């Protein structure tokens, strides 16, 4: 794990990010059947910051909006509202092609599936070299080959592997190739969208150890997406817990596991089996509400044992409690 950054200025800052999707039926169908429009608020007012050299992780149940955040920060989705700032520069406000190209070079993404993210028709050397060519980072073919060979070694593969095709590798090896491709543009910031969830458990630790090693060696900053708290524990400095498109708790890693504050965070931690004490895994209680028509007030209140009338009526905002920030009326009122 990398040491905390000395500078307090964030490398990446997300302010009040919104990502809405129109999931309505076609216009004619709606008119004939007198149906309303439906808007899915996948991300609804999200704010966080990541300092240089740190790992900020987003965790939550499937469908909470984690991957949508990752894709929006990476520029694969156009945000409905809010700001995404790299060293104070708002990505939405950048119009010059050269400025956007520089940001794209500095910020790369490692996708969830190493099977779907690599072009099966290309040799590995071409997969890794694509960003080098796109950003003009090699003066000659010989220099390009040398960079590709160095990247393969850096991720634990052999330069000879550059002559092979992706189908000749295992899942873990393919993810190493994906990481090498992401590193080929010499980025400062990596967005990692569940990079180990498609891999065998025995391989996951190897990839996580590799990513931690690369962070230490290259001074990388990570936005890490996962639903697995064991993975989050391995890589994180700070953790944001998401529920239905919003962050309900932002906390240092040590605080999350030692002193979780939000009832939803506590429920997630209850799902981790206690191998030493023999405590059985406790599945999450209740059902996640329909994100198209979420409950009023706090979206978690139908599943919360501490919910009050205020929780059902008023949506909580993040407030500071010790080193953490929590959006919970029960925590604010001292009922937990």
Q: Which descriptors apply to this entry?
A:
disordered N terminus; 336 residues; four-stranded antiparallel beta sheet; Rossmann fold; eight-stranded mixed beta sheet; alpha/beta; 33% helix
Please give a structural write-up:
The chain is of the alpha/beta class. The chain has twelve helices and twelve strands. Strand 7 (189-193), helix 7 (201-218) and strand 8 form a beta-alpha-beta unit. The protein is globular.
How many beta-strand runs?
A: 12
Oligomeric grouping of the chains? single chain
- Which CATH C-level class is it? Alpha Beta
Helical stretch tally: 12
Strand residue content: 15-25%
CATH architecture: 3-Layer(aba) Sandwich
Q: Write the H/E string, N to C.
A: EHEEHEEHEHHHEHEHEEHHHEEH
- Across the major sheet, the strand order is 6-7-8-3-9-10-12-11
Instruction: Kindly name the structural category.
Output: alpha/beta
CATH superfamily: P-loop containing nucleotide triphosphate hydrolases
